[in-house]
Amino acid sequence: MGNNKNSEIRNFYADSLAILEILEKLNDGIKPTLLGKRFYTDAQLAERLNISRRTLQEYRDNGLIAFYRLDGKILYADDDVETFLKSTYRPKY
């Protein structure tokens, strides 16, 4: 019984290490690459918030949401999006 238990523990440990390695690779793939931040494109953010890209443009035009323009592409930092969402939050009455 003892050998079987040790074998199960070794297998569990090996599987855990394999899972950890996979998670580290996945995490490396999504690390922010600019200014230590993660960014959304205009299309990604519109889809995520379930609004139109035109609505996002209105938010930008009215100074409601911070953004970056890089070679004509609009980018939104995840912390700026969080700030924007917090500023528009209205609790139930």
Structural commentary:
It is a single chain. The chain is mainly alpha-helical. It folds into two domains: 1-30; 39-88, Arc Repressor Mutant, subunit A, CATH 1.10.10. It has helices spanning 2-29, 42-49, 53-61, 78-88, and strands at residues 39-41, 68-70, 73-77. The protein has a three-stranded antiparallel sheet. The longest helix has 28 residues, at 2-29. The radius of gyration is 22 Å and the shape is elongated. The protein starts with a helix and ends in a 5-residue tail after the last helix. The model has no long low-confidence stretch (mean pLDDT 84).
Short description:
The protein has 93 residues and is mainly alpha-helical.
On the 0-100 scale, what is the average pLDDT? 84
Counting DSSP H or I runs of 4 or more residues, the number of helices is: 4
Number of strands: 3
In terms of DSSP E residues, the strand content is: 5-15%
Number of domains: 2
CATH architecture level-2 label of the largest domain: Orthogonal Bundle
- What is the helix/strand order? HEHHEEH
- Write down the overall geometry: elongated
- The assigned structural class equals mainly alpha
Low-confidence stretches: none
Largest sheet: 3 strands, antiparallel
Radius of gyration (Å): 22 Å
CATH level-1 class of the largest domain: Mainly Alpha
Q: Roughly how many Å apart are the termini?
A: 62 Å
Fill in the CATH topology of the largest domain. Arc Repressor Mutant, subunit A
Helix percentage: 55-70%
Strand order of the largest sheet: 1-3-2
